[in-house]
Write a sequence for this structure.
């Protein structure tokens, strides 16, 4: 059994701790949308966290999801969604 954890932790320190304990390969990007309880830009938050590393952020933002679903990135999404995801990842 593989456990995955969501990235809504409300702070940089807590997010770094989550990666230290479980590893970035067990965390997935998440949001509390439509509720106004957490970060309004979850991908942007992850990119602002210091000392996590681009490889770990890439896993959390989408790499782990693609791996868990055993699909190739971009295979089943519209060109618009692919472009939006790529733009958000570069920020």
């Amino acid at each position: 059994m593989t456990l995955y954890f969501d990235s809504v932790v409300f702070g940089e320190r807590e997010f770094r701790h989550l990666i230290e304990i479980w590893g970035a390969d067990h965390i997935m990007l998440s949001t509390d949308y439509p509720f106004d309880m957490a970060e309004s830009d979850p991908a942007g938050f992850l990119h602002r966290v210091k000392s996590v590393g681009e490889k770990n952020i890439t896993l959390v933002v989408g790499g782990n999801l693609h791996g868990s679903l055993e699909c190739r990135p971009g295979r089943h999404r519209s060109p618009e969604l692919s472009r939006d995801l790529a733009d958000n990842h570069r920020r």
The helical segments are 12-22, 42-48, 54-69, 79-90.
